[in-house]
Design goal:
With 195 residues, the chain is of the alpha+beta class. The chain has one domain. It contains five helices and six strands. Strands 1, 2, 3, 4, 5 and 6 form a six-stranded antiparallel beta sheet that branches. 32% of the residues are buried.
Length: 195
């Protein structure tokens, strides 16, 4: 439902995309939706506070990924994730983060933001206030849907897959990835294997 989706052509007119990240993103969505009849898709961004020490590695995002995955595994939500690093002119990178959760177990996404704030603040040793963007507004202030529940048995499943692509494809845009030539990975994700 994600590969060959007409929305991809529409989106590619808006931004140039990093093909390997876009392919991995679609592969993960298809994999997860294939396993779970209901999948909750939540996206958010993680930032560093102003004045934070310079960041030379991806240690923080890797720790964050491990903590949030373990937290949701312990609750039986079968998490799957992807993060993407971006940095253009700022001193610090920021990360786009996507988490998929078993929609048969959880349907509300608002507490995912609270969990993210708690872990990110603890990892950085700072107050997380303003460091986790809920990705519910565009640059022009228009509302963006988040916390999309994909239900394979619903008649609007294909339409909802298109909504998810619109929600998460921004993670794969070309700008901000690799321009700084520091040798660090630009993304990380769950290993995809049958559960």
């Amino acid at each position: 439902m994600f590969t060959g989706n007409h929305v991809l052509d529409e989106l590619k007119r808006d931004y140039p995309y990093t093909d390997n990240i876009l392919q991995k993103l679609i592969q993960m969505l298809e994999f997860y939706a294939g396993i779970h009849g209901k999948a909750l898709v939540v996206r958010f961004d993680l930032k560093y506070p102003e004045g934070y020490r310079e960041v030379y590695f991806n240690d923080s995002i890797m720790k964050f990924s491990a903590y949030i995955v373990q937290f949701y595994k312990n609750q039986g939500y079968d998490p799957c994730y992807m993060w993407v690093r971006e940095q253009e002119t700022s001193l610090h990178p920021h990360y786009h983060f996507l988490i998929l959760l078993n929609g048969n177990k959880v349907r509300s996404y608002h507490y995912v933001f609270e969990t993210a704030k708690s872990f990110w603040g603890n990892i950085l040793g700072v107050s997380p206030l303003g460091l986790v963007d809920h990705c519910t507004k565009g640059k022009d202030g228009t509302f963006h849907e988040n916390g999309i529940l994909l239900v394979r048995s619903n008649g609007n499943y294909c339409e909802r897959c298109s909504d998810v692509l619109r929600q998460v494809s921004y993670m794969a845009k070309f700008d901000g990835k690799g321009d700084y030539l520091d040798g660090l990975r630009n993304f990380g994700m769950s290993r995809l294997h049958r559960r």
